Q: What sequence folds into this?
DNA sequence: CTGAAAGCGCTTACAG
DNA sequence: CTGAAAGCGCTTACAG
């Protein structure tokens, strides 16, 4: 069958209507489950659709109705399991509403992100869930407003005049610091990595505030490499300072994984020689040894919340902007002990 | 601005044409970078597009040309980092060709997969990359053919009359078995889990063949729970048999992670008391201790290959079906030693 | 409940 | 190089 013939082969709503002996309008009503159609007629049309192998053409419909049933999701990357879980939550909710999600990664590059937003607009997405690339200018907010495109920010924010769903990083940090302090730790380091963005800043501020409110020195901020593979070898950075920490809070799952490995490589026993607290607590956290005490931010739930928010935003663009912050919980396992 | 006014606001190609004092046809030619347009005219039109904030409407264009620039990707789940890496490869290549990918997960449920395929057809996807849900009937192949939809199977296959990209599981298994045998192991177990599908079968067959060709007993197939969280507690299954293995090959990354943790919980030293080999070797593999010797299947590369194949398939539907199998490599680290 | 008609935003011959 | 026109597959009043 040549592509010429194939084209003619396409079954259209008009074909269905003729086959069922009704008008195109009626067939269209059946399609959209209108109550205006009699049940006998309805059945006849539905049979015709089945017989002919009719497939609804959403693209054509979209040209009339302003709804593409497509939403976009832009994340910095896909290989970090944290984002994979986030996406899983997004897909779950969006899929359940009958919509479809276009996925793209920005690589934390602003120009790439700009290109992706344009491409998504060209595809007429009904809205997008955006985890803004690091260093995104806040002017992006004005652009988005001018485009009149529903957007919810996830995990990171550039403007609170736009919907935002994230985690309560400040509380998470306080939970971690309080727990370590209760064990008797005073020299607590915060092991960070990656580019600076709102979530980065919130964690750092949260750490600082939590330390200060306990009268502890909040200045032990130690930077690790961005790539997971390089973190373990950089473990010595923890001990290069005049004062040596007795406990370390990790910026995220990757840092926790890397340091957990690196400390073992140094011959240290985690929980005895040094206490370690993870952050994000993705599924793998359960599976490393010693079991990692970790602050859970709930990426799947955040993805679900963001998707629901976007759906509501699309339904009612006049809604005031909302800010949803998921609670964090400290999962106490085995990686912390008293200082020695 | 009400939604009424907004609709009128939409800038169309006709607006651009008028603004630039050309016909709609000419504006369209500029859009598609046709050489038929003089450079002076081209510039004028491009300026008009910028001035007016014109956004190309791919959906409208699609109604005429049979190309949506959308491709679909269906995977069993997103939280398994293996699939996340696969997707990353797919998105990379598809994005680079200017197309966009619709993402969905089947949850390894055949009906869900069917629904997703229909939804994607309604969106007029140019093709889909499908990791078939476990227990997919091979009749799906006939359906897909009847729909005349370009599909490449990835990781799992239901028919070789359709493009397929996967890993060379048989060789991977042989590499693992040969390595263990060279260390002196004879009682080697294969720790499997999850539903049965072609990739499962190929690994099991590969294990069996590799064992047999070395004159070893291939019957130690041990089933573990599907959920990562439950694997560690099930570690005892390794020792419930009359003959106790001295080495274990893991079905995939999840099993490796779970058993690595579980063996440590049992107080065993991996590499001394028992040798362990992982499979898939996703990014995390580098970060567990003891370092896991593992067969790498290269999910990112597989995703890239699948995307390229689909692009070629779309360009030329008459191409004979192809079967691409990515080489595996054994990464020797620290989790294996001599039997004792 | 149904039919005829207009229109969504583009592309594509066809004439000039 | 340009203009006028038809058509892609749908939805939506409007009249009956």
A:
């Amino acid at each position: 069958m040549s592509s010429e013939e194939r084209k003619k082969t396409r079954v259209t709503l008009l074909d269905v209507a003729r086959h069922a002996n009704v008008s195109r309008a009626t067939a269209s009503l059946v399609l959209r489950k209108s109550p205006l159609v009699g049940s006998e007629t309805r059945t006849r049309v539905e049979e015709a659709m089945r017989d002919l192998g009719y497939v609804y053409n959403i693209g054509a419909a979209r040209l009339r109705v302003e709804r593409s049933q497509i939403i976009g999701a832009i994340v910095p990357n896909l290989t970090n399991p944290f984002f994979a879980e986030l996406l899983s939550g997004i897909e779950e909710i969006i899929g359940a509403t009958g919509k479809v999600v276009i996925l793209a990664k920005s690589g934390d590059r602003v120009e790439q992100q700009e290109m992706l937003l344009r491409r998504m607009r060209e595809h007429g997405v009904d809205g997008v869930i955006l985890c803004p690339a690091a260093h995104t200018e806040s002017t992006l907010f004005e652009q988005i407003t001018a485009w009149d495109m529903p957007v919810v920010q996830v995990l990171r924010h550039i403007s609170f005049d736009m919907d935002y769903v994230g985690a309560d990083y400040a509380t998470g940090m306080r939970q971690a610091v309080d727990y370590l302090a209760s064990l008797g730790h005073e020299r607590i380091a915060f092991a960070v990595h990656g580019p600076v963005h709102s979530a980065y800043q919130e964690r750092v501020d949260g750490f600082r505030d939590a330390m200060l409110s306990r009268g502890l020195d909040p200045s032990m901020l130690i930077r690790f490499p961005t790539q997971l593979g390089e973190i373990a070898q950089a473990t010595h950075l923890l001990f290069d300072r005049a004062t040596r920490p007795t406990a370390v809070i990790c910026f995220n799952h990757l840092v926790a994984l890397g340091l957990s490995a690196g400390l073992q490589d140094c011959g240290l026993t985690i929980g005895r020689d040094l206490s370690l607290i993870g952050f994000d607590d993705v599924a793998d956290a359960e599976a490393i040894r010693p079991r990692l005490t970790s602050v859970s931010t709930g990426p799947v739930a955040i993805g679900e919340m963001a998707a629901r928010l976007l759906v509501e935003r699309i339904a009612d663009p006049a809604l005031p902007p909302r800010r949803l912050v998921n609670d964090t919980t400290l999962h106490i396992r085995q990686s912390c002990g008293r200082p020695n």
In short: The two ends of chain B are 78 Å apart (CA to CA). Residues 10, 12-14, 24-25, 28-29, 31-32, 56-65 of chain B lie near DNA strand C (CB under 10 Å from a C1'). Residues 157 and 198 of chain B are 6 Å apart (CA to CA).
